[in-house]
Amino acid sequence: MARRMFAVLLGLGLAAAMATAAMAQVTITFRYAFPDGDVIRDAMVDFEKKNPGIKVNLQRSSFAEARDQLVREAAVGGGPDVAHLAFVWVRDLGIAGALMPLNDVVKSKGLGQGWGDFVATDLTYDDKGNFYGVPFATDTWGMVYNRQVMAAAGIAKTPETWEELRNASRQIKQRTGKTGFGFPGGSGGNNSIWFLCNFNWWSDGGTLVDQDASGKYVVGITPEKIAEVFRYFDSFFKEGHNPKGNMAIQQPFEPQVLEPMARGEQGIAIMPLFTYITFVNDWTKRNPNQELPFYSAPTPHGIGKPTTHLGGQSLGVNANTKQPDAAWKLVQYLTSWEFFQAYYKNYFPAQKSLLAKMNFPPWLKGFQEQFTFARSWGPYSKGPAVIGAMWNQTARSFGSAAIGEKSFEAAAKELHDFVAGEVKKQK
Amino acid sequence: MGHRMKGERRFVVTMLAPIFLILICFYLYPTAFNFYNSLTDLSLLGLRRGGSFIGLGNYVKLLASADFYRVLWNTAIWLTAVSVALRVVLGFGVALLLNSETVRQYRLVTLSRLILLVPWATPPVVAVIVFRWLLDQRLGVVNRMLMGLGIIDLPIAFFGDVHWVWPSVITIIVWNTLPMVSLTFLAALQSLPEELIEAAKVDGATGAQRIRHIILPHLRPTIIVITLLSTFWTFNNFLYVWLTTGGGPGSYTNVIATDIYIKAFIEYHLGFSSAIGVFAALLMAAFALVYLRVVARREFQEIL
Question: Which of the residues A165, B71, B90, B285 could staple to A159 if both were Cys, CB 3.0 to 4.6 A apart?
């Protein structure tokens, strides 16, 4: 009898414990959009251990699709609780009602060393002062050189100006027969020529979108300067030191660009920090016990500084989330130093205090220096112009001129008028 | 009798109701919704708010745009007419080859059909990636082979040079979709009575005469159907162009499907993009009308 009683009580106790556990268990979804999801999977196990009441469903998606997918889902009340996004999407997604404003939660629950410690936060605000995303990891672009190819071409000094870069590229082709500066010149939606043109304009004091003293958004560049830069990048193709095939390549991480660099068939490349780290890691695995032939350096400059954009990844909390507290705990975890140290080793935290703790190996010194010249997209993102539309139009106009469909002047005017039309949308 | 007819009608209606419901929910409603969107200034980021009604503004803008006529030309001529014509001609040739005495004589029927199925079984995304490697200017096997054989001195930028970009894109489309056309023709060829060919041979008809006077007339309905269906499948295709060139260089290879994507998801103009979609649907409806008049009506008449 006593044994039966004990069994019943034990059963009841277990059932009660399971019910309590089930009630306490909260499940949230985190959608991660970069290819290295295994790293995040391991981190989620660690997060669940540290937060026993929270279970994380990890979803994977393509970064190219992440923004559009969230917009579509959020419009009908769906989507992940926490989303992995780009810096420049956050504001638009917040205004579209897809992301939750974070002002109150940051104030009441805190985040890292404080909101002021995060970089590029200006990109997360709407006009009313609400901010919608947490800068997660930061990135910028820099130049990568193969010192063996440079030496074979007799180039002792790393190019510092745009003209020096073109001369070096020319010299590599003439003296070694190899590709000089091999950059992607494709016209697709996620093209690279947009970045290259902007780096050139910025380093010469121009900018497609600017804000005047009264706060009004204006076009900050002349059609002549646009045409000059189009001509400059086209000359690499026309002179043959960047192969014409690169006119169909969109991204700096495509194998058609990286493989010749890895094989020593190309002297100079431009790429984001994360691409460079992955590239070097892969090269080291392929070539064990060999000295790394690559080094990085800041991008060239004109009359100004070698300016690139401060890009990176953000985390956003879905406006439809039913579990904002658990979602915020995940954001806090993903922005912690421990997470970057243990799991996110190939990335750089978007927090000044954590960036200062980072150790840059010699081959990354150029990027370390480049960070000091990087700027946020600022008026491009905060203004009325749609970045994606200008991005697309820049490459289309450049491409049309490069293939001789339009004159460089006509293509430059087309882009100038397009941006003028975009900034006119301001209220 | 009348009671029985009513019962039968009710049965037919009940049986057809689910399919009509599906058509209304998944075809008619989205089409109507898209048409409504095309009359608004809806933005991708304004899905929650919805767009404001602007009448035929998007259509006026579309028809006034010189770029759109370029896109239309690319879609109608390069993407569709050239690639469909090539598929039909090559598909017919491959089918004749597979049906030939020689293939049978050397017992290559099964092997040749298996080989033919490989491109068909390859997903388009994979086909595009493979071809991008094969045709790459610096690393591609095709360039190395052509240079090795002394056919060219310098590697060709197949996707970056305007002289080569369309032929290269069309090569991928034809490679990937030719088997379906060939196998359809092959099936039609096998339904051709052997006696007809034998009789023509006895009468002294040459190979070309047999093709012209016996095979082609026999295959005529198949050719019409496959041409129209290939036109439907190709006209709206997004993938081959987007993954190879992104619509570039410039807008040199931009087609309707990629333009719809660019306007909706890169420039955020969902309303304008919907107008392009409606325009494309109208063009497709014209093809469908031809299809119904030429093919389906005859088949329906036979059934009824």
Answer: A165
Block residue for tokens 């609400």 = A130
How high is the ipTM of this complex? 0.86
What distance in Å separates residue A115's CA from the closest CA in chain B? Answer: 26
Nearest beta carbon to residue A245 from set B157, B266, B267: B157
* Maximum alpha-carbon separation in chain B: 84
Q: Taking residues B149-155, report their average pLDDT.
A: 95
By the CB < 8 Å criterion, does B124 face chain A?
no
Q: Check pLDDT > 90 for residue A62.
A: no
Beta bridge partners of A272: A141
Task: Say yes or no: B55 contacts chain A, CB-CB below 8 A.
Answer: no
Instruction: Report yes or no: B37 at the A interface, CB cutoff 8 Å.
Output: no
Give the nearest chain A residue to B267 (CA atoms).
A389
Beta strands in A79-128 (DSSP E): 82-86
Structure tokens at A273: 């920090």
Q: What is the pLDDT of residue A165?
A: 98
Question: CB of B48 within 8 A of CB of A97?
Answer: yes
Max CA separation in chain A (angstroms): 98
Residue A190 is predicted with a pLDDT of 85
The confidence band for B287, taking pLDDT boundaries of 50, 70 and 90, is: confident
| B138: contact with A, CB 8 A cutoff | yes
List the one residue out of B244, B65, B45, B268 whose CA is nearest residue A391: B268
Smallest Cα distance from A31 to chain B, Å: 20
Q: What confidence score (pLDDT) does residue A7 get?
A: 60
Region of poorest pLDDT, from A7-21, A222-236, A330-344, B106-120? A7-21
Which of A287-291, B5-9, B247-251 is the least confident region? B5-9
Q: CA of B137, closest CA in chain A: separation in Å?
A: 5
**pLDDT at residue A262 tops 60:** yes
All structural domains of chain A, each given as residue ranges with its CATH number in brackets, are 25-139+311-365 (3.40.190.10), 141-309+379-423 (3.40.190.10)
Distance between B135 CA and the closest CA of chain A, angstroms? 9
Identify the closest residue of chain B to A418 by CA–CA distance. B267
Evaluate whether the domain defined by B67-303 bears CATH number 3.50.50.60: no
Is the confidence at residue B99, as pLDDT, over 80?
yes
| Closest C-alpha among A8, A359, A300 to residue A161 | A300
> Which among B232, B236, B235, B214 has a CA at the least distance from the CA of B295?
B232
Average pLDDT, chain B: 91
Distance, in Å, from the CA atom of A190 to the CA atom of A197, rounded to the nearest integer, reads 14
- pTM for the structure as a whole: 0.87
Burial status of residue A22 (CB atoms within 10 A of its CB: 0-12, 13-18, 19 or more): exposed
Crossing angle, helix B165-190 and helix B124-134, to 10 degrees? 130
Chain A residues closer than 8 Å to B49 by CB: 97
Check CB contact under 8 Å for A248 and B266.
Answer: no
